Amino acid sequence: QRGHIRVDGKVRDTTGEDRGLRVGFSLPVDGRGFTWWDDTVVSHTIADSQHYAYYGSDWGVGRNRQVSVYPFASMSGAEVGLTLAQRVDQPRFFRLFFESATGYNIDYNLGLSAETTKFPSAASFHFLLYRHDPEWGMRAAAQRYYEIFADFFQVRAERQGVYCYGIHPDLEDPEIGR
Q1: Which of 33, 136, 47, 12 has its CA nearest to residue 83?
Q2: What are the contacts of 1-7 at 24+ separation with CB within 8 A?
Q3: Cβ contact 129:102 at 8 Å
Q4: Given a cut of 90, is residue 163 above it in pLDDT?
Q5: Which of 131, 163, 127, 126 is CA-nearest to residue 144?
Q6: Which one, 81, 155, 160, 176, has the greatest CB density within 10 A?
């Protein structure tokens, strides 16, 4: 769809028991020499036997389980940039990471319970895979994400502003600091 691969999946329990599952997808790519982007500024050259992910320092969820900070992750080679992305409108506990043994990965922690009214004993997951301009790394990955999900990033406010603190309230033009 529109220059990306979209994967929609659903798992269903048939035992009648409540349980947690870890569901994942691995793209088996050799990323040695590629660049892993933590964000738009911080990057790392991918080496053998290393784990690359950006979970942030305070993003643990129960028992120190990690979740990705951003809904997409970027890795770039000389000729291609690759993005794995979680849909922003389908919140899930997920991790985006690269490991040389498994490749480029996304995995989810999902819970199944018969007591869920709208989707009893079931859980869904949704992710995308797409290319981006390798020269611009995470910035290009973000730009493509905004284009794919344009409705979610449309500016609807007629008047925009910024909240600032530490600026003297008597300034005539606080926008320019005078």
Answers
A1: 136
A2: 2/147, 2/148, 3/130, 3/131, 3/144, 3/148, 4/128, 4/129, 4/130, 4/144, 4/148, 5/128, 5/129, 5/130, 6/126, 6/127, 6/128, 7/125, 7/126, 7/127, 7/128, 7/129
A3: no
A4: no
A5: 131
A6: 81
H or E stretch at 147: helix 137-148
pLDDT tens for each residue of 106-159: 999 999 999 999 999 999 999 999 999 999 999 999 999 999 999 999 999 888
**3 state SS for 37-80:** ECCCCCEEECCCCCEEECCCCCCCECCCECCCCCCEEEEECCCC
Neighbours of 55 (CB within 10 A): 17
At residue 33, the pLDDT reads: 95
pTM comes to 0.83
Q: Return the beta strands (E) in the chain as ranges.
A: 4-12, 19-27, 35-37, 43-45, 51-53, 72-76, 81-86, 93-99, 103-112, 122-132
CA 85 distance to own-chain centroid:
5
Burial 98-109 (b: 16+ CB within 10 A, else e): bbbeeebbbbbb
Beta strand 103-112 pairing with 72-76: unpaired
